[in-house]
Amino acid sequence: MSKKIITIFAILTIVTLLGIISLESKRAKKENQNIEEIVNSENPIYYYGIDCPYCRELEKFLEENKIEEKITIVKKEVYQNKQNTEEIASVAKFCGLSTNEIGLPFVYAEKKCMLGLVDIINYIKEKTGLENSDGEQDEDKKNTQETSGEEITVETESNPED
Questions:
Q1: Is the pTM of this model over 0.70?
Q2: Which of 7, 91, 105, 144, by CA, is between 20 and 30 Å from 59?
Q3: Which residues of 45-73 are buried (b: 16+ CB within 10 A; e: fewer)?
Q4: What residues does 113 pair with on adjacent strands?
């Protein structure tokens, strides 16, 4: 009798393991298909966080310049959406970035990952033709400096006496 129980237990264990392997294989295949769709997307994908101050600055830039009337941007929130959090990690991996290097705002477009306001705004300006022909900065005369992985926006004032 104990041999029967051991045999049944072994068969159930093998069937369970095969089921888990099959499910994991299907999940991995689906994830690979999703990543392929993302990396081949024709539209920029913008990953942001609800409480991210730099993301709010980028949103302000998008609204003020009516960017979404000029190009389609796919927006994905990552702080409260686990699927988007996993997706940004996969996209970053595709770009050769580790999860430690991921920051917000983050844009994936044209098979490139862009981090931070400067790179993203420059990309958007280029795509929408907002870049000033004489190379001047926007009328708000903001300079953006990159320091230790964080971006700091510094207001500069024009001095009429200079």
A1: no
A2: 91
A3: bbbbbeebebbebbbebbeebebeeeeeb
A4: 108
